[in-house]
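Sanity check

After download, print the first record. It should look like this:
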Amino acid sequence: MGCRSVDTSCRVFLCAPEESMLRLNAIQAKPGMTLAMPVYHPAQPSTILLRAGAVLQERTIAALYELGVGELWIEYPHLEQVADCISEEVIQARAETMQVLSDAFDAMRPDVGAELDYRAFRRAIVDLVNALMNNPDAALLVQDMYGCEHPLLQHAANVAYISLLIGLKIDFYLEHQRPRLEPAHARDVSSLGLGAVLHDVGVLKLDEDVVEQYLASGDEYEQRFRQHVKLGYDMVRGQIDPTAASIVLHHHQRFDGSGYPGRKTGAGVHTPAGTDIHVFARIVAAADLFDALRFPPRPPSQPPAPPMPTVRALKRMSEPPISDWIDPVIYLGLLAVVPPYPPGTTVELSNGIKGVVTRWHPDEPCRPVVREIPGLGDKIDAPPGEECNLKDHPELCVVVAHGHDVRNDNFYSSEEVPFDLHGVARALINRAAGPIGKSAKPTDPSSGLAQAG
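Expected structure tokens:
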């Protein structure tokens, strides 16, 4: 490049992309582009609007935008690195999780009154974990799940997926935080996924007016809404393992002790803080916050607004007060699996060059590798240009991503706050071994461990 200065069924059907493609907002699409993946109706996800291989026309693009279609994957040569980040097995497992959630939502309607099928939840989570472990290159949040009219279902599926991504990435930290367990058991994230997918199940037991008020206001501290954690815990206790059930009860705890619910003690009500909160609940709390920032609660009757750009949500989580609510090691884990600019994202750089993200750096997440695409924003018919690694060009930055102005949303590593997850792992191993090889007690990551180099 030269680097110059609905249906609540939520039935989601996805397929694997072509080998070379890029991702566009529907509003960015241009006539003549060819779809690399099929497009489904947002409100009727079992209905295919356009199949892979279809050539877009002006009236078709206008219709897709009017229908609220979010993303399109477009064929484009020489972008194989993007396809490496997307796995058909992972996509299908995510869709299965959404389907199980949909069935559970329908079963819990007052006119049905059926019990939750916890075995189906377990199977879906195990399949998703296996898919992610079989496809480590695809263990990233590269594409959003669309096709839900009810925001609570999409939120539960997103939180479960992100929680599993984090848990698998920081397996060393799980082992450190669960010292009473054998290492393999400590790293097992099945209970994490099960608790995450059910974390808001208690909302189904709230009065309809309480849920409507929450979806309209987004106030998770409203007294009646806060009851959902206890209601959900009472539902799942004895049905799933205690570790997963505790996530349902404690996913609104905060690292600084400002969360809920409190625990009654002889001295009064005590609110857990720091590592007093189970590591799984801390992970789900971070995933819950991230997804709520990107997809704010809304009434089901209200069409979804465009999601907040990922980079903006991650930056807000790095700043007070939200940064005080999150375990700093888990935030580093989030950064390691949720790229601010995922591969396939179309971007514009501060020097005016337009291109697509092909790779990224977890230690400098806002400085990805971008391949120039001549004509992007007009016609994409020329071969791609050179790659520009923004780590090598600190004078450049991303100013537009996926159609959003993000020039004020970039954030960078520093000596005081390095994004060094591997350094955290080394520090934990060294501390656990001790100077003469003896095990040490677990340490609180808030005591500077997150800045270990």
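If your output differs, re-run the checksum step. Summary of this record's structure: The chain has four domains: 21-78, 88-337, 346-405, 421-451.
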